[in-house]
């Protein structure tokens, strides 16, 4: 069952980062544990979608939790280590093959559901960023912009983002021609030039229009060469 938390102007943010008020209220009502879930990497042309689910320890909350996009890379890395050391964390990846087979929306929802199911305890409620509920059996509350509002979602967004960035940096070392470690697979001028020069690698999402167009171009060029 999913509830839509909608938009709110109350960020619950202090100098120490996002507060834990929404989660504490649920704990006081006997709903435990409470998790947050988010994903990273829906838009890139290459690499997986990475989803994370996090159950924060109310007695050991990392300071400075916020939307991962608002944090510096160094701060994200530091918070990632602290979250993994103090919270219950589950991560799931939807690879390009699943994205191409199922479409990006379905692959993202699958990754979110898989991350929630991978938690060591079944949550009494999961706060999920957005308004598209993943298929899980436990209660959900959807929160639009939740990574900037709910501490548990912010923690999940940080874990997902750092995990994906590390994966893409690793792919950059294996496929240096594409510069994955710089643009993380997003559609940038550098990435476009590399695609035109080298075509897609095994980690590109071939169902995405820019990659598909490049495949068609390479196929047409190969036909011309064969005809000659």
Automatic annotation (TrEMBL):
List keywords of the entry alphabetically: Cytoplasm, Endonuclease, Hydrolase, Manganese, Metal-binding, Nuclease
Q: Which residues form the signal peptide?
A: none
Per UniProt, the enzyme's principal EC class comes to hydrolase
User: What subcellular locations does the record give?
Assistant: Cytoplasm
> Could you give the cofactor binding note from the entry?
Manganese or magnesium. Binds 1 divalent metal ion per monomer in the absence of substrate. May bind a second metal ion after substrate binding.
Binding-site residues, a divalent metal cation: 38-39, 129
Q: Which biological process, per GO, is one annotated for this protein?
A: mismatch repair
Annotated function: Endonuclease that specifically degrades the RNA of RNA-DNA hybrids.
Q: Per its UniProt record, what PANTHER family does this chain match?
A: RIBONUCLEASE H2 SUBUNIT A, RIBONUCLEASE HII
Q: What is this protein called?
A: Ribonuclease HII
What organism is the protein native to?
Answer: Aquabacter spiritensis
